[in-house]
Amino acid sequence: MKVVLGVAGGIAAYKACELLRRLRDDGHDVTVVPTEAALTFVGRATWEALSGRPVSTEVWTDAYEVPHVRLGREADLVLVAPATADLLARAASGRADDLLTNVLLTATCPVVLAPAMHTEMWLHAATRANVATLRSRGTVVVDPAVGRLTGADSGPGRLPEPAEILAVARTVLAAPDLVPALAAQDLAGLRVAVSVGGTREHLDPVRFLGNSSSGRMGWALARAARLRGASVHAVVAHTEVDGPSGIEVERVGSTAELGAAMRRASRDADVVVMAAAPADFTPATASDVKIKKTGDAGTTLTLVQTPDVLRSLVEAREDPRQVVVGFAAETAADQAALVELGRGKLARKGCDLLVLNAVGRDLVFGSPDNEITLLACDGGATTVDGPYAGTKDVLAHRILDAAVAAPRRG
Prior knowledge:
By secondary structure, the chain is α/β, with parallel strands linked by helices. The chain is built from 15 helices and 19 strands. It has two domains: 2-184, Rossmann fold, CATH 3.40.50; 191-405, 3-Layer(aba) Sandwich (Rossmann fold), CATH 3.40.50.10300. The chain is 36% helix and 24% strand. It comes from Microlunatus antarcticus.
């Protein structure tokens, strides 16, 4: 697809070089449109070498091609990273004083802005008003990360890492129908508690029972909820990848720890998503020292079941308006058998929505893609939606849509 990568004049412009490389690795045709100030931080030759295309900041270059109109009309996505306070102000007021602002005015495709600036500038009433204006017009504005800024400063205003911005770009390119929800921050005011990753049950100080969960689906749900304006608390077990910025993270190890943390997090949550993969069994006793080999005889383990975290969350629910979403990873011969297994689990667990995965070798765990079936409870009956296939980031939004619309039990 055709992507216009706009780069405004901030120190975080160096991160856009990595973002550009990742976009090209995805196979996209990328044209870089920097502001004149951006070239102070990263030179024209760098952008041209990385993109394989000429770079200009002015509407007069190659005027016969009318680039200030053509680029916006032909693009599938306009992505600006970093978007400075000045760029946000010019875009909100409809200025067209360089090539990038002209592209923003003529773009008929989704527009994503990733702001980066000092904390005082991000929190200033003028910037907040500009962001609100842009969002009201359908522009997706990604909240900046919290962290180290220029010099010794630290706070909200840091440009998210390239991988995070890329995840948003991939979602918008794959599912442009989500843009209105992202721009409108349709989950603003909601509190979402989500569990992430796989738990570990220790046999001794160096060995444990675990599973193949990478945490990608849980992180995708946290990212999607945050992108749409929700306040997110993530209870995180073992994961293979890092999570998004802007969310509250609580680390746990075992299934018992996960259950206790999720019960605390769910007390004031509007939506509770049990996306983690808790271990079903734990050793009856754990050794305080490493278990030694004794010849070739092997060893015997006595395992007991771990607490049913999902069921405990349903039982602890005090607000009947709270939505509890569960996940089920099942091996089944076909879709009909998978749904039958899911119906049984939905009835046993008592949650409002069940996300059903078919698992097996090279399926679901660790993959950036997934296929899901959504089972919703409606007065004891069950409706089936899907299966849906796609990236976990896109599917996360589909799950949140279903959660908000899900009928409640009782």
